[in-house]
Specification:
heterodimer, A: about 1050 residues, mainly beta, 22-stranded antiparallel β-barrel, five-stranded mixed beta sheet, 13 helices, globular, B: about 475 residues, mainly alpha, two-stranded antiparallel sheet, 15 helices, about 0% strand
Chain lengths: ~1050, ~475
Amino acid sequence: MKSLYTMTLVGTLFFFPLLLLAQNHLITGKVVTAGSQDALPGVTVHIKGAAAGTTTLPDGTFRLNVPDANSILVFSFVGYLTREQALNGRSTLDIQLQPDTRNLEQVVVTALGIKKEKRALGYAVQDVAGADLMQAKQSNVVNALQGKVAGVQISSGGGAPGQGSRIVIRGINSLDPGRNNQPLFVVDGIALDNETVVTGTVSGSTSDPNTETRGMSNGAADLNPDDIESVSILKGGAATALYGLRAGNGAVIITTKSGKAGRLRVTYSSTAGFDKVSKTPDVQNIYSQGNNGVYDNQSFWPSWGPTVAQARTLDPTHPAALYDKYKQAYNTGSQFRNTLGISGGTEKVVYAASLSQFNQNGLIPFSNYKNYSARVSGNATLSNKFKMGVSLNYINSGGNRANFDRYGEQLIYWSPRWNMRDYIKDDGTQQTYGATDNPIYTVYSNRFEDNVNRVIGNLNFSYAPFKWLEILYRAGVDYSNSGIRHAAPGPKGTVGEVPSTDNEFGFVDEYTTNRKALTSTLILNFKNKISSRLSSDLKVGQDIYQRKLKRVSTEADTLDIPDLLILQNAKKVLTNQYNENYFLMGIFGDWTLNWDRWLYLNLTGRTDITSTLPKANRAFFYPSASLSYIFTEHLKIPESILSYGKLRVSWARIGKDATPYNTGSGYIPLINGPIGGSAIGWTRDDRLGDPNLKPEFTNTFETGAELRFLDNRLGVDVTWYTSKSTDLLIPLKLSNATGYEDFYTNVGSIRNKGIEVSLNGTLVKSKKFNWEMRINYSSNRNKVLSLGQGLDEVAVAEHFGYAGSTATMKYIPGYPVGAIFGTSYQRYYGSDKEDPLMIDHSKPMIIGQTGNSAGFPLINSNQKYLGNSQPKWIGSITNNVTYGPFSLSVLIDTRQGVKKYNQLANFLAAFGESAMTANRFEQVVFPGVLADGTANTQKVYLQQAKGPDGRNYGAGYYRNVYRGVTENFVEDASWVRLRNVSFTYQFPATLLSATHLVSAASITLTGNNIWLHTKYTGFDPESSSFNAGSNVDAFAGFTYPATRSFLATLQVTF
Amino acid sequence: MKRLHTVLLYIALPGILISSCSKSFDINNNPNQATTPPLNGLLVSATYHSAINVYRVSNITSYLVQYLASPNSDGATDTYQSTDYSTTWKLLYDNMTDIHDLIDQAGKQGAARHVGAGEIMMAINLEMLNDLWGSVPYTSAFNANVIQPPYTADDSVYTYCIALLDDGILQMKKTDTKYELDAAKDLLFGGSNEAWIKTAYAVKARILNHLTKKATYNAAAVLAAVANAYTTNADDAQMLQFQSLSPWNEAAVNNINNSLDGWLSAHFVDAMNGKTYGVFDPRLPLITDTTKFGDYRGTINGAGRIGSGTDQEECYLSVNGFYSKPGAPLLIATNAECRFIEAEAAFRSGDKKRAYSAYILGITANMDKVGVDTAKRNAYLHNPAVGVGEGAITLDLILKEKYAAQFLHPDTWNDARRYDYKYKNFNLPENAQLTTFIRRLAYPDTEKSRNGANMPSVKLTDHIWWDSF
């Protein structure tokens, strides 16, 4: 706002000499806001059809000389409806301007932290106001964006307290599965580290598998959504060409609340809520513990025994009914948040401060998350040439993170014949049966806790020595210190103790990570009016980003005193460290030409120089061009038909670099330490880097239109885009016979294309009753074009399945990025040719004729295409209804055409727990044909061991056949979800004025994730078994269940 | 004009800043690694992991030859399910890569001893790969330029093993070498060249003895190799130092702590407790403890445990046992094994006298190693079922005793396959997924997904090269 005022003022001063030439009539007047009658400074007053004009002063008054006493004056100001007023000979005009509520922001924050008028942008930008963000009362700012922006796919990893969320804009355009495919987060012009922390351990690679499945937070989760004023999502290439390669996947520009001039304002908000599990798998409750139909209450096998009735005759202590494992396993969670905010200031200085506390207890017992944050910010106008701003945010976050994958796995092994909740004996050791571990005892005794202290600070200056030049400088620091402690006690050695397997002999692991990121941006902004209708805005600048990371790990095991959890109590101690440095510099230019405020041309160019590529390829250049044409202004189309219409087109190229240390290879000491105490063995490290690494490039083209009809009651924003990424960087998994595990190199190209449609409309508009609806729809098609290096396929990730049914995510030319491969049923093709990759589901299954597989479907162990994890389309509908002081908001969102490999279903079938295995003693004839094509007629029993027909069925159908076919477990993970319902009551001002203290107050009741419709049989089709930073989204097995939350919030402003 | 100069100055400023910074970008060498490893550092990892790999492979084969049994019914390895051993495959190749680098670096530095030791260890590891998987990538392996290495034929891999051993022996005998092996870093033999040479011959004898089904089997060549191999237990190739626990000791300790492992198979226990052969083997109490019933009983492969598994109802590797006590030696090649190879080769060439003598020496050697009391040892040797005399010595007897002496060694699976599993009372496991005995392993899932085009299609009943006539 302020810079706009400055710009307009400067522009007007330029014209002042011209004005003085004409001996004209002097018009004076005052402009105020309609309703409150507040003075409006900075309003543009100009003569219709001419360039001459002025702006209102801080008190709202203006003076303007006009040549013609019958001129029409046009009053326009951002955020208000433009007003035209004919003079008709008057020399004084008092004008009231109506606020423009059609679009919350006519000004968006784009790259470089510069606000631009939305009209000037030739590319798609979508914004979300802070109030909208707070609607869902989500603690993680990324989750709060769900359903609000077209083309943006946000997947919460699961319901763990503080669990990371993944945000992908316009599809995946990078192939490295471990690489962050997420957009750049920028807070007040400074990039925020949004990585998800993983630990380093001595016993493996730099990432401990245990942290993968602990729902670690993404960095942006540290932000308090209450502190956010607005969020702009920059989606396409041109939008992000100015932030450089770190914004290659888009950018989320966050503007925090700053102070406003005026009296001191204090706001306080308090939220309390509880969470329940939203969905659990269907299990059978008929068959009890044992194997082969034989009861054994100490058995490793939880559910292959006889019926409950039969078991009770053998074991009088058997409960009347089996326990409901999934009910027992999850608590009711709770969450509390309190935020206190202060803001105020004068004309010269404004400030804002906030304090917030957040605590959450999770669904898995003993899991929790806390986040305490303190923030101060100030902006000062030191002179009419010099402004500065500063802000500091300290955040302390962390919690006890349950290993949800292990918890889910141990749940499978637990037999429902036993009470899981009875998990501990009086002597503190595990209460369990046989040699099985009690899952609740495991999360009780095996603790993984993280504690992060983070400081985000920034400083910015703006100096305008001349009217055509402004110098902007921003510097920021993001420093975090993270301490992780993973410890468990050893066996006590008491009689009858059943030690917990995961605790081994007791261990204490301590990890300390320091991460520091420094950003510095210098911009020179040249603004010129080239002619009466053509103006130019040129920005030239330099950007520096430096990141240093240091991690020290100490892992100690075999404790002398079993429950003294300190490092010096351990018999074996191993240490390891990891250092990483990264440096990036960018030099850029951004030039906007504006013809009469209805045609805008924007050109950008940027050169990035990075430390992660070899010297020859280190610097690379990428340009962009975009055009925005507001045809309603140009063609003077009447407002009653089309109040606003803009066409936009843009082309951009973005470059991306590699992750550090991938241009070579080396040797490391043997993990697990020296041998015999002192001999250090050296071995080749698993990763081979390519010394000729090049940057990746993505070329994007987008075009779109933004239209508003019916006096701004209805708005449509449509975008069509296509982008092609080449020379993609990926760690190619290699056969171990090469001596390496993977090879980091440029390989392949992919293409994304799609459309985004955003509709918003005010269906009912009256004084008391308002109904607004917003619909977002987007569809992205992604295809791997080629792989390079002479490869036909690249294995990206695998997820275990029993009996060879391991599912693989592969990149194969012609298929989308999330292609899932695995085993399938053999099918009879007759004289038709069987495609090596695609399955023809219309063909009948082949049923075996001989040996153990006689009468059962046969398995095809070749890897075939089973589905794709990239959705065909995603959409959301938001309805906002206001009736007097009441308002109701409902958000429904959906994702369609998605498939995921459900490892949970694989395990449930293998252990006889899934509901479908209740038919295990039945006799069936499998529909299908024999090898020669004749119909199958053989009757078989689905059970284990000896059947009524005398045949020995061995381990039974579900273990022999069903669990070994990946096809059975690649499920439709499409869903429709009632994501958020929010009901607010605003206390009327008349009631509050009686208190002489409170100026505004409201109560909100919110329900999140209340209803879900999906065919997916696991916990939640949106969850993932991999962490939030990963690109591997095809696998969901033992995820943290999604939560259904109910919250109440009280918000008070003093 | 002045304005133009000012504009140019402002644009030039960043340029000045840029040019001073080029050193800030040269920071991409990974500080967490070494570019060149020390030659003896590679020796440490090569010797250590060659030994540990013997354990890893044994952890598969012991269940196939029914030394050990899974405590869970329908255990995957026990019941011949198509199991994925990607980890073992990776660890074998990782070690072979380090050995390859050792040979390469040593060759360039003229360190013949390191080349020799490397080649001998390469043969040990390659032999295990060959025995489990037959045809495996070798000639184009360890090469970063060949990212999908083709598979080398089964019999060629075998031939390479022999060639590696022969050249290894030559290298160890060279007189003009610059460096000797570092005694502290050679974790197997403490730098002794003679020990390496003897080991090379022992392994060569073992490998040559695999050809019993082939027309090219040459008993004389086997005997010639054996003659240069071990003569006393002091020659045994074994690992005595570990990063934490000796692997089988770790299995025994885990078992006590509820992570069930190291359960003895009923077949093995019955062979030792007198049930199968009518003689109680005095080594049995030195391997395991009695059950709560006071006797020795194992678990049937595929059937799994009969009780809770934590109640001493069956035999497990004992923390007091020779093979699984703290610091238990991990055996790569032994004097006992050499004697049995000698016995078999001698028998096959018609020399029953030599065969019987080697047979007795083999039993003696192993019993001494395990720590059997001399009186009990002699009593066993004089038992008519064991000490049958020269005239009555048979292949069955030789292999029966070799089975006991080679407890937990991976080479037993080679013996079993050559012998067509004809041990007395050796049956298919319960719920076996195959109708005949298993003959090879399936290729790992990682090869299927990463090198699938080159990976041959096989069944678990396919005989590998030396296992077929």
